[in-house]
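Consider the tokenized backbone below.
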């Protein structure tokens, strides 16, 4: 499986969309939001809040992008070739998930570095480490959703679906605007989204609080559902490849 993971890493990191949407865009949006005063509130708190939000957005975008080429792989017969290898369906999905966990790191670190080096955000070393770890591990459900879309949809449709999911979950999950500013009905939806609970863990750490167990449990529920979706997508795609 290690050879398969290395192959997938080379493919993803050569993708221009990964560099633009997974790394550059979250940094640019963070600098725009904070420099032009578009973030709610002011001062260091707003800068810190948006830093975590855009780091989360970068991680989610890179996670979804990991599944973008799977539709084309199916058309090219790549899944048919994988069926001839000793790799089990769960191992193949796991390999792609591990790839996704690696490629999300640059976008997360880039935004946090911009916060520290450009915006002067200061946190205790333990907070930095905890935020990076939570943002990194929390991308797994989004990677799995992106993989499921990639296995089930055509090459053109999967790109549109993953981008729509990324943007929609970012907005409704409060990564662009705090959910506290939403109407009551939209905030109620936001409270159950994976993006809101994913970022909520690191928001709490950034402001010196313990990550809320409720957010962790909701994100775990999304992880289990997304994992089942990705395995189902691969099994179905493999049968029709």
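A designed sequence for it:
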């Amino acid at each position: 499986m290690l050879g398969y993971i290395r192959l997938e890493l080379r493919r993803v990191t050569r993708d221009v969309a990964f560099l633009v949407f997974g790394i550059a865009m979250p940094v640019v949006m963070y600098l725009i939001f904070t420099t032009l005063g578009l973030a709610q509130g002011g001062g260091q708190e707003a800068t810190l809040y948006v830093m975590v939000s855009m780091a989360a957005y970068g991680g989610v975008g890179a996670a979804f992008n990991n599944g973008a080429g799977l539709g084309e792989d199916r058309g090219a017969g790549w899944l048919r070739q994988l069926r001839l290898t000793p790799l089990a369906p769960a191992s193949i999905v796991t390999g792609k998930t591990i790839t996704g966990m690696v490629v999300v790191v640059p976008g997360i670190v880039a935004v946090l570095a911009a916060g520290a080096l450009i915006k002067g955000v200061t946190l205790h070393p333990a907070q930095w480490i905890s935020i990076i770890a939570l943002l990194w591990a929390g991308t797994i459900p989004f990677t799995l959703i992106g993989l499921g879309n990639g296995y089930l949809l055509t090459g053109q449709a999967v790109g549109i679906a993953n981008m729509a999911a990324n943007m929609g979950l970012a907005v409704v999950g409060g990564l662009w605007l705090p959910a506290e500013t939403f109407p009551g009905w939209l905030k109620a939806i936001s409270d159950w989204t994976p993006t809101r609970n994913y970022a909520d863990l690191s928001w709490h750490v950034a402001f010196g609080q313990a990550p809320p167990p409720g957010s962790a449990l909701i994100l775990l529920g999304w992880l289990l559902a997304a994992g089942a979706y990705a395995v189902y997508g691969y099994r179905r795609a493999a049968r029709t490849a």
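The chain has a mean pLDDT of 84.
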